[in-house]
Structures are given as structure tokens and as C-alpha cells.
Design a protein that fits this description.
Rossmann fold; 2 domains; five-stranded parallel beta sheet; 8 strands
Length: 271
């Protein structure tokens, strides 16, 4: 299963990607995590990305795609992957499409998580992440676990929860505006390719996960695949019916001509 999760900031992409990754046994690939890991390892791509970030510049798409290429080459991604937070615009979507075609790993589905804007603001203000392992929690919808489950797998100590600087109401409006401008066009892009599936991402966390799993079920994809074929079959029937009507009309005209009385010749004048 190779999928992309789309959705506005606060729609729950990270949380649902984590849950789906555990359920399906495939990796969640976040470009943010890839950047941090590449910088920490000091790889060539990581050093280039670090230079861009330290210079206050956006990391070029080519660098991000290079990191994704490297990540997809690892053994745990052979059976599938979940792309979380990428692509973010049409240029990235086209570049990703070319990369996956080259790797012969085309997407199976793209899921759009829909949430009301007011709910997005509420969620974003309650979001926290572990400073060590990067796991995402939400004080309102998916609070950090307690007891043994509260231990960070990277440090063995309790999760160190932090709030991102832009996870506050003062910056949410601008982030949503950028999302509508840059990322929402991806919905039509993937719909035109027959990959898009949309779910309601509001409500109980477990119920949203169930909706996501149902949307990705083989039967859902098969139903989508059948619709274009049905439409094509209908079109063929329409063309065939048109040809039949033309033949019938032609036959009717031919029959009408055959029934016409032959034109009488004028009598010859007597000598």
C-alpha cells in the first residue's frame, strides 16, 4: 500500500499516519523527519538542507525528493509507505509522480482529511510533539499516554513534550491561507488521476481511523475502478444505439424509394 495523506494543518495527518503505519506495518515518511535525520547524520543532502535552513531559505524540492528517494530504497518501504506532509504543491506533486514512476512504485491512493476550519484552530493550539522521537500528540484529541506507554522509544525516558512555535492561534489563519492557496489544488490533481478519497476527519479518533481504513479497503478502490469502465460501456452502448438508428433510417429510406411508382413514358406519336 503506497499512499499520500492530504489535509490542512491540524487535520490529524500525523496521528492517523502513525496509526496506519502501525496497523499496516509500513513506514510513515514525513519530510520534516527526513530533513532532521539527514542533518543529524551529516549526509550530503543533509548538509545542503542545513545550509539552506541556516540561511533562512526554503529547502529545494530536489533535495527533499532526493531524501524521499533514499528513504524509499530502505528495506522497510518495499511493501509500501505513507507520505505525510508531501507533496505540498502542484510542482512537488508532478515531481513526486515522475520519481515514483521511475522507481516503479506508483501511488495506490491519496486520502484527503476534511476538518472544519474552527476545529482546525482548536486542534492546532493543543498539539504537542516529543522533542526526542518526534511523535505527535494532542492535548484535546489524542493526549499522551500514561505509565509504561509514556516512555520515549528513543531515550527510554518520558516524552519531552514541546509546542511548535507556529502552533498557536496567532499564526493559524496564515497557515490555513497558504494551505488553501498551495495545497488544495492537489485535490483536483489526484482526483483527475482516479486516486483521491475523501473522509470526514472530525469526531472520535478511533472512528476517524476506521473511516480511513474503509477508504483504503480494496473494495473501495475496485468500486472507483469500476465507475470509469461502466461509463465507457455506457458510451459504447450509446454509439451502438446511434449506429442502429442510422441503419434503420437508411433501410426505411431505401424501402420508400422501392415503393415509388415508376414514371410513365409519354406515348409515341403515330406516323
Amino acid at each position: 500500500m503506497r499512499i499520500v495523506l492530504l489535509g490542512a494543518p491540524g487535520s490529524g495527518k500525523g496521528t492517523q499516519a502513525q496509526r496506519l503505519a502501525e496497523r499496516a506495518g509500513i513506514p510513515q515518511i514525513s519530510t520534516g523527519d527526513l530533513l532532521r535525520a539527514a542533518v543529524a547524520r551529516g549526509t550530503g543532502l543533509g548538509l545542503a538542507a542545513k545550509a539552506a535552513m541556516e540561511g533562512g531559505r526554503l529547502v529545494e524540492d530536489s533535495l527533499v525528493l532526493g531524501m524521499i528517494r533514499e528513504r524509499l530504497g530502505e528495506s522497510d518501504a518495499r511493501s509500501g509507505f505513507i507520505l505525510d506532509g508531501f507533496p505540498r504543491n502542484l510542482a512537488q506533486a508532478h515531481a513526486l509522480e515522475r520519481l515514483l514512476a521511475e522507481l516503479k512504485q506508483p501511488l495506490d491512493a491519496v486520502v484527503q482529511l476534511e476538518v472544519d476550519p474552527a476545529e482546525l484552530v482548536r486542534r492546532i493550539s493543543g498539539r504537542r510533539s516529543c522533542a526526542d522521537c518526534g511523535r505527535v500528540f494532542n492535548l484535546l484529541t489524542s493526549p499522551p499516554p500514561t505509565g509504561a506507554a509514556a516512555v520515549c522509544p528513543k531515550t527510554g525516558a518520558p516524552h519531552r513534550l514541546v509546542q511548535r512555535p507556529d502552533d498557536n492561534e496567532a499564526t493559524v489563519a496564515e497557515r490555513l491561507r497558504v494551505y488553501d492557496e498551495k495545497t488544495r489544488p492537489l485535490i483536483d490533481f489526484y482526483r483527475s488521476r482516479g486516486l483521491l478519497r475523501v473522509i470526514d476527519a472530525q469526531g472520535d479518533l478511533d472512528e476517524v481511523t476506521r473511516r480511513l481504513v474503509r477508504a483504503l479497503a480494496p473494495s473501495a478502490g475496485a468500486a472507483r475502478a469500476r465507475r470509469p469502465r461502466a461509463a465507457t460501456a455506457a458510451a459504447r452502448r450509446k454509439v451502438a444505439d446511434g449506429r442502429t438508428r442510422k441503419r434503420s433510417a437508411k433501410s426505411a429510406r431505401a424501402g420508400t424509394r422501392s415503393k415509388k411508382t415508376p414514371r410513365r413514358q409519354a406515348p409515341r406519336a403515330k406516323k
